[in-house]
Amino acid sequence: MKKILIAxxxxxxxxxxxxxxxxxxxxxxxxxxxxxxxELLKTEIPDLILxxxxxxxxDGFSTLQEIKTQEKLKxxxxxxxxxxxxxVDIEKGLEMGxxxxxxxxxxxxxxxxxxxxxxK
Length: 120
Description:
Layout: E1 3-7, H1 11-23, E2 27-31, H2 34-40, E3 48-51, H3 60-68, E4 77-82, H4 87-95, E5 100-103, H5 108-118
Parallel strand pairs: 1-2, 1-3, 3-4, 4-5
InterPro entries: CheY-like_superfamily, Sig_transdc_resp-reg_receiver
Keywords: Phosphoprotein
Domain Response regulatory: 3-119
């Protein structure tokens, strides 16, 4: 079973995504900010991380930067899911090594298709 980590500080988004990905057959982990992501990555290595940018304590950009420094996480796919739809932010996210950048609001169906595609 493929593992997915959802990192977002909005409860509704977490609930919706968790339901959709469990239904699609994924094992789902949840983090509410970047520091929780890094803590969880000490014990679990997901296949993919859905990462919000604007989170308390540690934002998505800082979190991704930290993930990219760890050898054991180099094959983990990362998709930014963010309300930040400025082309500069999108470019920054992709240049930092994210595999995709999807802006909110988004279609759950398209998001699950994109995740399936990246994890083939």
